[in-house]
Write a structure and sequence with these properties.
Elements: E1 6-9, H1 13-22, E2 24-29, H2 35-46, E3 52-57, E4 63-68, H3 75-82
Length: 85
């Protein structure tokens, strides 16, 4: 059985600004997910090879992953594919 760690992409104003200016995507992930779990799922499910991943727990108790993409892969393209933008 393959575990799904990514719950949903985030489409807040701040997340969209990060997509445009820093080429980053933001996802809500399972609380027990690690950086390597998130990286593995992004590579397997979406074909995204992240440069860097930061995870944190927000004040509402949700775990979020900020994923930095390579310069040749615009974050806006993936966000459009996910239906975020």
């Amino acid at each position: 059985m393959v575990m799904k760690y990514i719950i949903s992409p985030v489409a807040t104003e701040k997340a969209i600004k990060m997509m445009e200016s820093e080429n980053k995507l933001v996802f809500i992930v399972e609380r027990k997910a690690t950086k390597s779990d998130v990286k593995r799922e992004l590579e397997r499910e979406f074909g995204i090879k992240p440069v860097k991943i930061n995870v944190y727990i927000d004040p509402k108790g949700r775990k979020k992953a900020i994923v930095k993409l390579p310069k040749d892969k615009p974050a806006i393209e993936f966000a459009t594919e996910f239906g975020v933008v």
